[in-house]
Fold these 2 entries.
Entry 1:
Amino acid sequence: MGSRPYGRRLVWGAAALLVAGAAVPAAASASRPGGAADVSALSAGHGAKKAKNVILLIGDGMGDSEITLARDYTVGAAGRLNMDAFPLTGAYTTYSVDRYGKPDYVTDSAASGTGWATGQKTVNGRISKSPGTDKPMTTILELAQRNGLATGSVTTAELTDATPAVLASHATDRSCQGPADMKACPADTIAKGGPGSIAEQSVNHKVDVLLGGGRARFDQKITEGPYRGMTVTEQARKLGYQVVTDGKSLQGARPGRPVLGLFAPGNVPVEWTGKPAAQGGTDPQRCVTGNPERAAGTPSLEAQTRKALQLLERKQKGSGDRKKGFFLQVEGASIDKRDHAADPCGQIGETASLDRAVKVARAYAAEHPDTLVVTTADHAHTSQIVPLEANPPGLSSTLITNEGQPLKVNYSTNTPGASQEHTGTQVRIAAQGPQAEHVLGVTDQTQLFTTIRTALSLR
């Protein structure tokens, strides 16, 4: 069971990277609102009612099953991840709606992201536009910009993918990512008076920090409007962006000008690999690092988050009490993508990657207690931990955890060979800092918009 099936370094030491420290005290596991004194004692922020900064960390497809699987594999059943250490934890519902406003019980990432970005429900596939009338809805990032805050978005997906797209673009369909991808969004084209593709809108918004994948989208030629004939990357440079493509150039980026980081042609390749789940199961396996598809010098999500915080802090306007803060969203995108592919090792590795970004965010908040930090998911997904003796009808895999124990994971939300599906269950939301108490109990995804807006006093 401890053999080296791929000839690359095995992930036996991951626990050392992920342990959040001592076990979370009993008070930290509060999951329902108590009296005001209880909330005050649990919430970091030293009684501050207003946040200067907000860091929102999204695990795409990171339901309770995905968190538990990563915890069991990396730090053990009795261990705790960094994301487990938040003092206040609740749950929220994630459903989308149809064009008439009726519930669609299983959301996609476009509709769910629109929920927290705008405070409004929409139809699956739509990016920050209304469900019936297809009108743009103001996003939390747009409000932050109007109020003078610095803004940033970091993702392991393409920067034009649904979760980052909901912040700085409005599109009838999530597929309209680059100038050559506008077939499903005729009314959004520049020729029709629309804002253009998601890539064009993202740089036109002058978001201070944009880091992720999707270089091929930004290398598409613009065919309409004032930047006709340029690629979107050239448009970004024209607008003053520093364009970086690897970890070294990212570290060389300086405040004062916006930064566009494009670290892969498509989605950023995952950090861990292994055998995908199969009908009848797999032989017991350990996950491995050293993904050959991940280019040398590709910055980790942890490193991107740390640099984004540095750039945004230096971008803050004003001085003293008048100093403006920032809004930053960080997405671990391929938890979802590897869940779709029934790839437990890829999925666990991306959850571990996000967890290290959570550690960076919480460390920043420890030094800046006027920072609200929230971690959550956009929707739940398919993976389930099942008994070893189970014989699921779908796809399954047996892993050997860092504790040396076998663990069986099952994927059965679609027929074998088809993409596994999202599920409609509620997901975790956890927070610390000013207004963190608003995540307690069972809320809806759209209420996260109000929590952030209230914390930052955005008008």
Entry 2:
Amino acid sequence: MIQKFLLLGLSEELELQPLIFGLFLFMYLITGFGNLLIILAVSSDSHLHTPIYFFFSNLSLVDICFTSTTVLKMLVNIQTQSKVITYEGCITQMYFFTYFGALDIFLLTMMAYDWFVAICHPLHYTVIMNPQFCALLVLVSWILDSLNSLLEPLMVLRLSCTDLEIPHFFCELKQKVQLACSETFLNNMVLYFVTVLLGGCPLAGILYSYSKIVSYIFRMSSAQGKYKAFSTCASHLSVVFLFYCTILGANLSSTATHSSHSSVAASVLYTAFTPMLNPFIYSLRNKNIKRALKRFIGMAVT
């Protein structure tokens, strides 16, 4: 029975470890502080107790958890000069990585639907996007995703493996399947199916929502109305574009080059870099968030 694995990390060169530690610690602290500040600002301002900011605060919470799942273990390993992760720890990390990654996608899809209803059906917005429905959407996503995230780690348990070295800074499912010594056909089929289902279907929903939004905006006669509608959606589109492009880039780079190093480097983008940028993208382009942040910081200082 395998009891532990070795996470080789971003680099095995000792002189680079302090630089990597400092860089990732900085990104993790910015991610945690930025997203936590957004959550506190939204919760403390009654004007932001609306569906879109409810989804946004949930996204900030998920981003904190998503980054913590991978980056914290890497920081501990660098600090203790140990590459070890237990078998149970590897499976647990794989579960939560899948869990929070899928939740990110679900929340981005909910936000796209919210914008679609707000812009294309404004008269029915309060009826459709009522607080009970929004809370139910999020609750069902958390519950269903917890069940779905069990599937892939359980599939890994059936694999046998003699290579204990994982050329990554966290236990990624794809890396585990590639290192397996037993038949991986079923695992690959499940992986592809889940990727299409949880990645492709939400993306199709997002693109459909925004195609309707863009079509509706072009039919608007007011130039000011068009600008307001486009600026309202710009932040969310930026986050969707950044998240999906970094994940797609990570998968395409590893497929094209067959290099674990390129896959690891690309994985940094969506596991650490994107969650760090999300609060800045939303806060810098959203007057309500900036106003709430100023009010909250003012209350905290006084």
